[in-house]
Write a structure and sequence with these properties.
single chain, alpha+beta, 12 strands
């Protein structure tokens, strides 16, 4: 048997980067628990001082808010799926799939919102198309439907889960190896937890599942083959794993990660300096040898020419540090194409309407690029499911290209003016009506949308 746990060279080189970016995105206690990886110690800094600084760390998470803003804005209006064809049972299936893509009740928009966030953090995410395994082989399509074997579903995987792969000249997967881990107990009364590691190997025709169980505090068990066979996309001769890759220039954690780490170290250094400034050190000016003990419970005796004072910084370096932190904050937002959101809260910026429009137009172009990437992944996955089932439907995915709440009113007016031109095309009228109806009812159930499309087609 081949080495199932062997890792791809690219995986080895990027694994620590992905962990760093995940810590930067999540922030909070997760970042604090790993802060020792990111808080830089001063040259020859005493270990106990560094540990005290480490115990006091805090993290201002700008990049996490930026990623969440993009995800919320991009999916404010859900993608619109259209399934055209006369196969009503198939249309019903896809309506159910859109409402529950993973057999746990997750809607398609929510599923791909998480995939998009994952891609913003690590630069890529993956979706596996799978079909239920049945003990009894189905003789025809009717039996497949009755057994539930045709009920496709999606499984989400992160960049850390895909440990090995190979691609052909076109960049398509030839085979992949996925690895996941979990803690489990066979029974609730069991005292010990078991760590279960699972590997899944897929090529263009077959799959194999492996399993290894490691008991708490014990040696790792043997790797055993659990299942193997032909996967659901075998007749398409393709690996059933689909990737959502974010271009390097739009990979937000990669663009802002180093700036966020620099801001983290500078802000903690400034906070430490301010804290130490509250505990001023006494200074004695004297020509005599000084041997007296100084403290809250002691007193000192000074000669006629001796002087006593306290150290206190002038504050110039504090001002420079604060200004540098502000510049770093603004730069984080700028490199993430959100310059209009990076101004300090205490500072009002006067901008002309044209300037504001220009700033947000750049952000909108990035959002549209994200929308195109997400729509393309959804379309490829749905088309693969349709081809594997042989439903004979045409699949289209639209939307995710407008991000201003007021835009629908303008679009409605544009549609009204377009139809008022009197173009003698029933198809144009039906397409405009469908586009407006589906966009306005983006959060309605898929079966409702399908009925609306059917009625527009019938009455057009």
């Amino acid at each position: 048997m081949f080495d199932i746990d062997r890792e791809h060279p690219d995986y080895k080189s990027q694994r620590q980067v992905w962990q760093k970016y995940r810590d930067l995105y999540v922030g909070g206690e997760q970042f604090k628990a790993n802060a020792g990886r990111y808080l830089i110690s001063r040259q020859r800094e005493p270990g106990d001082v560094y540990q005290e600084r480490l115990s006091r760390v805090f993290y201002e998470n700008y990049v996490g808010s930026i990623v969440d803003w993009y995800a919320a804005t991009l999916f404010r209006r859900e993608p619109v799926m259209e399934f055209e064809g006369k196969n009503e049972p198939a249309r019903k299936f896809f309506g159910e799939l859109v409402e529950d893509v993973d057999r746990t009740g997750t809607a398609l928009a929510d599923f791909f919102r998480k995939q998009f966030v994952e891609s913003m953090v690590t630069g890529k995410s993956y979706v596996l198309v799978d079909f239920p395994r049945t003990e009894t082989p189905a003789g025809n399509r009717g039996e497949e439907d009755a057994l539930g074997a045709s009920r496709a579903y999606l499984v989400a995987y992160s960049a850390e889960d895909l440990i090995n792969w190979s691609t052909d000249e076109q960049g398509n997967f030839e085979w992949v190896v996925l690895r996941t881990e979990s803690l489990r107990k066979d029974r609730v009364e069991d005292a010990e937890w078991q760590r279960e590691t699972r590997w899944m190997h897929f090529d263009k025709q077959t799959f194999r599942r492996f399993r290894q169980v490691t008991k708490e505090g014990g040696a790792a068990g043997a790797v055993e083959l659990v299942d193997e066979g032909t996967h659901g996309l075998a007749k398409l001769n393709r690996v059933p794993l689909f990737g959502l890759r974010i271009p390097e220039g739009a990979w937000m954690l990669n663009r802002a990660g180093l700036l966020q780490l620099e801001h983290f170290n500078k802000s903690n250094a400034l906070a430490w300096a301010l804290t130490m400034g509250l505990f001023a050190m006494p200074v004695v000016y004297s020509d005599r040898e000084w041997r007296q003990m100084v403290g809250e419970s002691y007193y000192i005796q000074l000669g006629p020419d001796d002087r006593f004072g306290w150290t206190e910084p002038e504050g110039k370096v504090y001002q420079i540090a604060a200004e540098n932190l502000t510049r770093l904050q603004e730069e984080i937002y700028r490199v993430c194409y959100l310059p209009q959101a990076g101004a300090p809260l205490s500072q009002g910026r006067v901008q002309s309407g044209a300037s504001k429009q220009l700033d947000f137009s750049i952000t909108q172009e990035i959002l549209r690029a994200y929308g195109d990437a997400v729509k393309e992944q959804i379309r490829r996955i749905l088309m693969a499911v349709e081809a594997a089932r042989g439903d004979g439907l045409a699949v289209a995915v639209t939307g995710m290209d407008e991000f201003d709440i007021a835009e629908f009113t303008g679009e409605l007016e544009d549609a009204h003016q377009l139809l008022a031109l009197g173009v003698s095309s029933p198809t144009l009228k039906k397409e405009v009506q469908k586009r407006l109806a589906l966009k306005f009812l983006a959060d309605a159930r898929q079966d409702v949308k399908d009925r609306i499309v059917t009625e527009i087609e019938a009455n057009g």
